[in-house]
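Help: why these numbers?

___
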Amino acid sequence: MMWNYGPMWEAGWGWHWIPMALWWVILLLLAAGLARWVFGWGPGGHRRDRALRFARERYAKGEISKKEFERLKADLAS
């Protein structure tokens, strides 16, 4: 029989899938935000802290001068 022709809502599809789709979008956005927070992804994050820590270690070891350290620190802050 060919009874399943016509608009989707008349064929039993309805619009009940929209809240479930919104739920999954919200869940994925929350998971992405949590990953950015935990792993430090995004503008700067943990990478900037690690770079500044590395510059401090180099300055403490005497590998770079104070002027070079200050320049690196200013670059990392911006």
